[in-house]
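Researcher: Let's continue the batch. This sequence belongs to Elongation factor P, and it's 102 residues. Same format as the previous ones, please.
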Amino acid sequence: DLETYDQIFMETERLGEQKKFLKENIIVKILFFNERPVAIELPTTVDLKVIETDPGVKGDTATGGSKPAKLETGAVVQVPLFINEGDIVRIDTRTGEYVERV
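Model: Same format as before. Here are the structure tokens for Elongation factor P:
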């Protein structure tokens, strides 16, 4: 809660696929039913750090293929070949797809 700074706890099973885009200090909307949290709404995009991916190869272009990258939250997404470990990437939380390098 941004006004009282109370923490709200919710079972991870209720988060479904959304939990792979959650990180500390992210602001989400929470849907309550009978004063209990039942769902969350993430921002449309989140910026996450790439912690594991194959190295880029000289000559890779933005229009080339893609490769898997593991993000700081544990999510694995397809990113362009020029993305390297340590890069920050913007991910669309609705589709789980790469948007851009930040």
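Researcher: Any comment?
Model: The mean pLDDT is 88.
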